[in-house]
Amino acid sequence: MAWFILAIAGVLEIVWAFSMKKSAGFTLLTPTLVTIIAAAASFVLLSISMRTLPLGTAYTIWTGIGAIGAFAVGVAVLGEAATPGRLIAAALIISGIVLMKLSGGQG
């Protein structure tokens, strides 16, 4: 269950990062509110997953989900560049997430 909660926390990190981008520096109300709510929920769920999972594993996977998700949303939705270097960097992050999960020890 901790892994599922952590995954939801990671997805919410993508939501708040995207909403923050759309908030235009917190000048637009709706995306600002989505950012605040999604960030708070993401932190709460991360903390719940850390009751069971090791700190290093949970935090690394949470930030990795957010980083890869934000990159994917940036490319797919915002038209950001998917250069070979950025794709290699994303693949390395994914590799790190998988290795961290496989060597996590607990959970």
UniProtKB/TrEMBL annotation:
The chain crosses the membrane at residues 27-46, 58-79, 85-102. Keywords: Cell membrane, Membrane, Transmembrane, Transmembrane helix, Transport. The keyword Thylakoid does not apply. GO terms for molecular function: transmembrane transporter activity. Its main location: membrane. One of its GO terms (biological process) is xenobiotic detoxification by transmembrane export across the plasma membrane. It is a multi-pass membrane protein. InterPro entries: EmrE-like (IPR037185), Small_drug/metabolite_transptr (IPR000390), Small_multidrug_res (IPR045324). It holds the Pfam family Multi_Drug_Res. It is found in: Cell membrane. Belongs to the drug/metabolite transporter (DMT) superfamily. Small multidrug resistance (SMR) (TC 2.A.7.1) family. Gdx/SugE subfamily. This is Guanidinium exporter.
